[in-house]
Amino acid sequence: GHWERRAPMKTSRSEVAAAAVNGRLYVVGGFGSEGSVVEEYDPGADRWQARAPLQAHSLLHVWPGRAVAA
Fold first, then answer.
1. Three-state SS for 60?
2. 11 burial type by CB count under 10 A (0-12 exposed, 13-18 middle, 19+ buried)
3. Which of 6, 24, 31, 63 would you call most buried, defined as having the most Cβ atoms within 10 angstroms of its Cβ?
């Protein structure tokens, strides 16, 4: 294998939660942002897009085929 440079996330941050769901990567929260940022990565298009922000004190739950912030 080898490493390949892909599109960078729009929001720089650390200590995030991440989940792969239905072929997309979701990166949630983290330090270095206001903590409510949610971004979705589409590897086929090599593109990040912002999703609805988290509400205060949310948790990310992941089941096969689904991710839910509650």
1. strand
2. middle
3. 24
